[in-house]
Design a protein that fits this description.
It contains 10 helices and 11 strands. It is α+β, with helices and mostly antiparallel strands.
């Protein structure tokens, strides 16, 4: 028994001194949130998603700009080929030729019709090795247009959908950073609660040890019963167990917070709780207006409706008559020399019309259209329900938040009163004016009041950052939340700064047992 007590004394007194020599990182809630926004996995994933959305949007925009293309398809043909003669006969002729060409084309998509307008110039040289001759064919200018007459116009629908998608991505990035703040707040207060439980367990153990020693003296002189002394011994053993369990909880919560903040070093984290909360009252109508204007969920609903309409248009285009037209007008000439091939060019015209009309498809096209319409109606119904749930969620969060500040105030007063009552109960017991039941009840209420106070602070800040994520609005500064997206896209937003360490050989960390 004496050996076990010695080991416990070493664990509670010497090990915290060793930990105190390690580097300690003190974090406030604001510092924790800033660190999480820089280096947490969720924040990094959000930045990668934003960059991907940005380049997808740039790709979409490029489809509406002119494109300049240089193409060449040279080939060498040395074989015996079937050739039609001038009199209509067909003979196998040995050919040995080299064809080289170069085409410069400028194309422009037309979003209103879905067609493509192009202008091009080309030159081709044909070398006949069998006769050691060559010739040129040139097309100084060709103007053309290609169009699907009854097809699906992807350019038109992309012009409606892609800007919404990009706005959604930008708002989602800002929303994710606020959700990161809410997640960091959760882990911050988990560690704060664990550290508070550990400090409380140490204080309770010291008090229980003092009371047990005092009870032994009173038992020896016969002023208390053996049952009461055994109850105090049981309290002491229970508090020893609570100390060990609380320390394990602190280590687990500390590891989770370090991991989420991207801290690779094995640092001791000490969180500092600010008991002051901003005096805010959020107007419900204002919150609903901001949420409907700024939330990415609204953009997501709008995009889903537009995509369902696009799917119906695609199904209709694929089910009916299809016609493709190709027009090209220009000049052309041929000669043995390149400069002669550009003299007195001849006109050329080419018109092509392709038609596809399904006569018997056993209702497959009509079925695709009906499926697309059914899916569109389903999406519209889901969007309406999502919008209703979204408004209800905003209303619920606003009402809860407006009451939470008062709850924090009540929890703070309750904690203060419970701490005083526990101290009074302990003194009364030492004076023999109170029972062990009253003492245990006061300790239990004190511990519960402390936990409830930390939980009230946690709920306040969690609700606050959740509301910010939905409305994308800073209610303290009264400004809309924005981010420097250009730096994020260019990968210049976050320099993984090392957190500042605060160490002191005199101060004790949270692992130091409170002396009785």
């Amino acid at each position: 028994m004496q050996r076990n007590i010695l080991l416990l004394w070493i664990a509670f007194h010497l090990l915290p001194d060793a930990f105190a020599q390690e580097q300690t990182l003190e974090l406030t809630l604001g510092e924790t949130i800033e660190q999480a926004r820089r280096q947490s996995p969720d924040a990094q994933n959000a930045r990668h998603s934003l960059r991907s959305a940005y380049w997808n949007y740039k790709y979409y925009c490029a489809n509406y700009l002119p494109t300049l293309t240089l193409t060449s398809n040279p080939y060498l043909d040395r074989a015996i080929n079937k050739v039609t003669q001038s009199d209509g006969n067909v003979k196998f002729v040995e050919q040995n030729l080299l064809s080289t060409d170069l085409t410069l084309s400028l194309t422009q998509n037309v979003p209103w019709t879905g067609g493509t307008f192009f202008v091009e110039t080309a030159a081709q040289r044909l070398d006949l090795f069998s006769s050691d001759t060559y010739s040129w064919q040139t097309s100084p200018i060709n103007v053309g247009y290609r169009q699907s007459l009854f097809g699906y116009n992807s350019l038109k629908w992309d012009r409606r959908i892609e800007p919404i998608r990009y706005r959604e991505a930008k708002k989602t990035y800002v929303e994710t950073l606020e959700l990161v703040a809410a997640r960091a707040t959760e882990k911050f207060f988990s560690l704060a609660k664990a550290q508070s439980n550990y400090e409380t367990a140490n204080a309770n153990y010291a008090n229980a040890d003092t009371l047990y020693i005092y009870a032994q003296g009173r038992y020896n002189i016969g002023t208390i019963s053996e049952n009461e002394m055994l109850q105090l011994e049981l309290n002491k053993l229970t508090e020893e167990t609570n100390c060990m369990n609380a320390r394990i909880e602190v280590e687990n919560c500390m590891q989770e917070l370090r991991s989420y903040l991207g801290i690779q070093e094995d640092l001791l984290l000490q969180v500092k709780i600010d008991s002051e909360v901003p005096d805010l009252h959020i107007d419900l109508g204002t919150a609903l207006m901001l949420a409907n204007e700024n939330s990415p969920e609204i953009q997501n609903m709008l995009r889903r409706k537009m995509e369902s309409e696009s799917a119906v248009a695609r199904a209709k285009a694929n089910a009916g008559l299809k016609a493709d037209i190709y027009l090209r007008f220009g000049l052309t000439q041929t000669a043995d020399k390149l400069k002669d091939a550009y003299r007195d060019p001849l006109e050329q015209q080419y018109v092509s019309l392709g038609i596809t009309l399904p006569i018997l498809d056993w209702g497959r096209g009509r079925g695709q259209v009906r499926v697309a319409r059914s899916n569109r109606d389903l999406v519209h119904t889901q969007v309406e329900q999502d919008k209703t749930d979204f408004d209800l969620n905003v209303r619920k969060l606003v009402k809860q938040f407006n009451l939470q500040a008062q709850r924090v105030s009540i929890a703070a007063r309750t904690d203060n009163t419970a701490q005083r009552r526990a101290e009074v109960a302990r003194k009364l017991y030492l004076l023999g004016k109170s029972s062990i039941l009253d003492l245990n009840a006061s300790v239990t209420e004190k511990d519960a009041a402390r936990r409830n106070y930390i939980s009230a602070l946690h709920n306040f800040w969690s609700l606050y950052y959740t509301l910010r994520s939905i409305t994308l609005y800073d209610f303290e500064k009264r400004i809309t939340l924005t981010e420097d997206l250009e730096n994020v896209i260019n990968n210049k937003d976050m320099l993984h700064e090392a957190p500042q360490l605060r160490t002191s050989t005199q101060e004790r960390t949270y692992l130091k047992e409170e002396s009785s």
